[in-house]
Amino acid sequence: MSNSTPATIEDVARIAEVSIATVSRAIHTPEKVANSTRLKVNQAIAITGYTTNAMARSLRLGRSNMILVVAPDIGDPNFSNILVGLENEARAHGYGILIGHTQNDAQRGLEYLKFLNSNQAAGLILFTGILPFGHQTMTARLPPSVGVFEPVFNGGIPYVGVDDVEGARKAVDLLLAEGHRKIAFIGDSRTRLAYSRRRQGYDTGLDAAGVAPDMRIVLEGDGTLESGRHAVEQLFMRDTLPTAFMCVNDQTAIGVMIGLGARGYDIPTDFSVTGFDDVPQAVFMSPPLTTIRQPRTLIGKQAMALLLEFLADGQPVETEILLRPDLVVRNSVGAPSRRWTKR
After folding, report:
1. Does the keyword Acetylation apply (predicted)?
2. Which candidate, 119, 60, 73, 130, places its Cα nearest to that of 99?
3. How far apart are CA 102 and CA 135, in angstroms?
4. 67-107 pLDDT per residue, tens
């Protein structure tokens, strides 16, 4: 086939050895086509270079079949699994995905909203936990939007994520069951709702166990590995040491483990550590990290399903869907040490 001649749907059908109608179904309603047939069609599309993407279809149809996904950090270990759920659900309903990577820059988030304002995208999935400042000047009203991973602090838009309070409660209850009472919470935040909800679960668990407020140690953090390492240094400088570190996420917990290891302490003999998220690195730590697992792919699937309902009906069916977290017990938690001594 000549490179100068655009491939047609007939070319795809011939190579895949199926009818044109089957090719059309495989593209537009893939859930109605057998996996083996869909694979043959997709391979034929790849060979011919046939343009079937949602952007091209939306231009022909005069409406957008693209969903804009705005994320602050596509390197976040949580992002890819949620994206899989989002994209699979979108594709099953004839939609495609545009990814807007803000790199934590509010101005970039505002620029991506131009896609919505110019009808290049039909709806918005927001990972950032905050609406781009000044979005009101970009569009008279926010298009159908759903927040994932991080509840939207200033937006009042529907949200799909893990139940942060329940997850944190599971972590603190495990530490309490091991005999810990002086438990530090690392990563409190006044602007990240997911983190403040995890702090709420920490306090609720300690309240239920009758642990006095003056036994609690709470440090703020931004969820980075460095914030966990810095928290360890702060506590050693203050000489107010807990027996356990309950961290707002796995990155913070890994930072805490590195900080304790650098000082010659053993986990869990000297200190216990828990995380939240169950990122891939958690299982490779030494010792492997006890943490709370988020059902990330399911979060993505349900968030996209909610957005598509919103697009169809003009209003969200539910304002918040919280999925159950799982406690993943590994080897970073043990009974409290009676003395904090270097080995």
Report:
1. no
2. 73
3. 14
4. 989 888 888 888 889 999 999 899 888 888 888 888 877 67
* CATH fold of 164-293: Rossmann fold (3.40.50)
CB 132 within 8 A of CB 106: yes
The type of residue at 140 is A
What is the C-alpha to C-alpha distance for residues 42 and 327, in angstroms, rounded to an integer?
39
Give burial (CB, 10 Å; 0-12/13-18/19+) of 190. exposed
305 burial type by CB count under 10 A (0-12 exposed, 13-18 middle, 19+ buried): buried
Contact assessment for residue 183 and residue 206, using Cβ atoms and an 8 Å cutoff: yes
CA distance 175 to 182: 10
The pair of structure tokens assigned to 202 is 């920490």
Q: Residue 104, Cα to own-chain centre: how many angstroms?
A: 15
Amino acid residing at 3: N
65-162+296-324 and 164-293 share one fold: yes
Q: How far is CA 158 from CA 63, 114, 148, 304, in A?
A: 23, 21, 9, 11
Give the C-alpha separation, 335 to 338, whole Å.
Answer: 9
The Cβ of residue 335 has, within 10 Å, a number of other Cβ atoms equal to 12
Question: Where are the domains positioned within the chain?
Answer: 9-52, 65-162+296-324, 164-293
Architecture of the 65-162+296-324 domain: 3-Layer(aba) Sandwich (3.40)
Which pLDDT score, from 0 to 100, does residue 9 have? 80
Residue 271 predicted with pLDDT over 60: yes
Q: The pTM is what?
A: 0.79
